[in-house]
Amino acid sequence: MDSLLNAHAGLIHRAVAAAQAAGDLPTFELPAVEIKPPARAEMGDYAYAGALAVAKLAGMKPLDIAQAIVKHLPAAEFVAGVEAVPPGFINFRLSADWLRAQVDTIITEGDAFGTISLGAGKRAQVEFVSANPTGPLHIGRSRGAIVGDTMARLLEAAGYAVEREYYFNNAGMQMKHLGTSLQIRYLQQLGADVVQPAPDDGTFYQGEYLIDFAKDLIAEVGGAWRDRPWEDFKEYAEKKMFGIIRDTLKRISIEHDVFFNENSLYESGAVWDTLKALEAAGLIYESAVRESEPDDVKAENAHLPPAKWFRSTALGDVEDRVVLKNDGSPTYTLPDIAYHLNKLARGFDLLVNVLGADHDTEHKVVKYGLKALGGDISKIHVIIMQFVRLIRDGKEVKMSTRRGNYETLDDLIDQTSPDAVRYMLLARSANSRLDFDLDLAVKQSSDNPVYYIQYAYVRTAGILREADVRGFSDADADLSLLGGEELAFIKRCLTLGDEIALSTQTFETHRIAFFAQDLANLFHPMYDRVRVFGEGIDDDIARARLRFYKGANVVFRRVLSLMGMSTPDRM
RNA sequence: GCCCCCAUAGCUCAGUGGAUAGAGCGCUGCCCUCCGGAGGCAGAAGCGUAGGUUCGAGUCCUACUGGGGGUACCA
Question: Residue A114 falls within a domain, yes or no?
Answer without folding.
Answer: no
